[in-house]
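@channel sequence for tomorrow's demo:
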Amino acid sequence: MKKIVIMFLNLIMMSGLAINAIGQDSDKQEKVYAIQERIYQKSHEFGIAAGYIPDENYYEAFPVGAYYMFTFNELFAWEVARAQWIFTSDKDVKNDLENDFGVRPSEFSEPKYSIYTHAVFTPFYGKDAVLNRGVVNRETYFLLGGGIVNYDNKKNFEDSSSETAPSLSFGVGQKFFIKDNYALNLELRNITNFREDDTEWRVYLGAMERMR
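structure tokens (generated this afternoon):
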């Protein structure tokens, strides 16, 4: 028993010395900073944007349009305007209600177009090796903004009416720099539309191409 106690005490002392030595070595080590200058930085950015809204009630919605962005520095930018026309096609549930059951909801709201402006914050920048054959620079950004969404409200036994609702938008995106004047963005946004009768939450999946 005495030998076991002595061995245990020796182990504790050796562990303490080892931890102390590691601590001293780490203190002596120089701090390393990974600093990467960002390339392909443009003050003015024009491009096209396309997306998909999967959770519209009765329509498959595909926004397509263009945007203009002004970059202040490596961290902050302003997407001054993003205007998109929304192309739609009927979902199966709409066709089933009308054709199979002869039922038509009191109102179909079809999105027509949207206009947004966003503040953009880009805290992350890096590069990836692709199959060890090339390097792709990329950055991760967050966006927050607002705008409007226009709807065509089609009602039973009444003429259709137009509604323009204020909208809040926020999300995250990744930008992949392909060439000096070309980049590809992938985005995921949450959209909140404040309509007259209800508040709607929508998910936006999108891609953008920077042309210059």
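heads up for whoever presents: The two ends are 79 Å apart (CA to CA).
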